[in-house]
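Researcher: I'm preparing a figure for a lab meeting and need a structural model of a single chain. I don't have an experimental structure, so a prediction will have to do for now. The sequence is pasted below. Please return the structure as tokens so I can convert it later.
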Amino acid sequence: MNGSWKWKALMVMAAVIAMAISGGGGGAVPEMMGRDSLRTRTDALHGRTWVLGLDNVRVYDTAKKTLIRQIGLPSWSVVAFICMPDIALDRRGSAFISSNVQSKLWRVDADSFEVKQFEISLLERERWDIGFGALAFAADGTLFAMTSSANSLWKIDIAMGRASLVELYPPPVKACALTGKGAGRIERSGQR
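Model: Understood. Here is the structure written out token by token.
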């Protein structure tokens, strides 16, 4: 093991990402789910459930089971692929949404519901034409994403509009979901 590999491994472990294949109900109430629901995430701190649909995001009051807002995603696209797009919530309760077709992310502000689109450049892989599937925030607030082909993990820098490849050995095998955990290690499970 050389020092570079150890440093990368420590960085990944410090980010505290655990891989799972669950795909994510996230505690949604069945009445909030529609036929077009791709992913759901529950924000217990703010009492909201976010449901990613085929052409929008719906935000529900979890306790009352009522729709708060339906938000369109401009220029967003999805295809039936290895991994579906995902939604991850940051500490403020804002939603980040991936496209499994394009290396772009959409942010929906938790307070104003304003949508902002981010083009993400894949450092050292600029010619790759691939989107992101799974998304997860680490305990330190770092955003990670799996490519929609489920073969590589990326550390996303939203402010700079770029992503850097996280070298993992062995590489992930068809992991279509990421979950931020506090265990201090990386866990992988096989495809269901």
